[in-house]
Amino acid sequence: MNVTDIRVIGLSHSLPEGKGLGDARGIGRTRSTTLLRLTTSDGTVGWGEAFAPGSIAQSTLDELFRDDVIGMDPFTVESLAESTYTDPYHFGGSVFVQSVLSAIDTACWDIIGKTVGQPIHRLLGGTERTALTPYASTMYFAEEDRPIEQPIETARKEGFTAAKIKIGSGVSADVERVRTARSILGEDAHLMADMNGNYRPDQAIQSARALSEFDLTWIEEPVPPENYSGYREIGRAIDTPIAAGEAHYGRFAFKRLLDDRLVDIVQPNLARCGGLSEARRIADLATTENVGITPHVWNSAVGLAAAVQFAASLPAYPHSRTEPEPAFLEFDRSHNPLRSEILRTPFDPTDGVLDVPQEPGLGITVDTTALEQYRIDS
């Protein structure tokens, strides 16, 4: 069996005028991503996602990957990540190379799972889980004028027992947003706050200290991803755990976060970090350093499916005789048909439980008719 065809499918969806959402860095109305469809000589189809614009993903695939992937045995997929660091030598760590690698890698794992009749999380080993704890990624900064409590109230009514909200626009605003979320979710709920790298270290420290009374599960990206010294400074100054990784690509970037103990939780995005093969290596590094790991998800349903399979395989180390923390999975609550409409059976995170598909591969069926509604020329 070998790969005989690769198709790049760029997708995009825009919110109506005046309905934009965002974070402390800015607000946008368009969500875009790229799917990759691999077909093998026996007709097996595998799906992956590159969290990158379709035109860039297409060019990167054609220039750097196509000749190696056509004719490739999907079972040799883990060698593909190795080769990206050596050929092309100077580009292997770039976001677009890692994004396209992510899509190819995930699609190959999907094919492997379908071929052997097993879900990917069973193939990855580790802890076998049938369900995850979804946390609502919500309370975005909004273009429209609306009560700040509205999104978090919706999440609570949907049954979420954990949530992550956007902050990072100033200490007083941070306190107001976190206080509001905590009062609605309750004292026992897990609450995370995402600064999206919008602060200098001194600003992030000031905000984190002001938020200490609200018992945050973690603070995410307090400074820009390249500000490694800033992460170190913040970690020495605050007690709240720090999470990061959505803007880091490949095992070597994550190794730096882990070697220098700059964060308490690493968050690889399965559509950007290098795919399931690299994510597994990152998980091994994190477990070795006794650092938490939970995937970042801001993707279509295909990238979400990859994150679900990965999260379901993660070990609970070292919680052998204590109650482990929930196996978290980020679930965006903004309107996004690229997540909610392109599968025959969409993921359902309500009531505080997200079932892990037990069907082979990613465990999903892509609705190719629905794809055409959001397809763009790549």
From TrEMBL:
Q: Which UniProt keywords apply?
A: Magnesium, Metal-binding, Plasmid
Q: Which Pfam families match?
A: MR_MLE_C, MR_MLE_N
Domain Mandelate racemase/muconate lactonizing enzyme C-terminal, first and last residues per copy = 148-241
On whether Metal-binding is a keyword of this UniProt record, the answer is yes
Q: Which domain of life is it from?
A: Archaea
Task: Provide the cofactor list for this protein.
Answer: Mg(2+)
CDD domains, A to Z: MR_like (cd03316)
User: Which is one GO molecular function term here?
Assistant: magnesium ion binding
Keyword Metal-binding listed: yes
Q: What InterPro entries does the annotation carry? A: Enolase-like_C_sf, Enolase-like_N, Enolase_C-like, Mandel_Rmase/mucon_lact_enz_CS, Mandelate_racemase_C, Mandelate_racemase_N_dom, RHMD-like
- UniProt GO BP: amino acid catabolic process; carbohydrate catabolic process
**PROSITE patterns from the entry?**
MR_MLE_2
Name of the protein in question: Mandelate racemase/muconate lactonizing enzyme family protein
Q: Which organism is it from?
A: Halocatena salina
Taxonomic placement? Archaea, Methanobacteriati, Methanobacteriota, Stenosarchaea group, Halobacteria
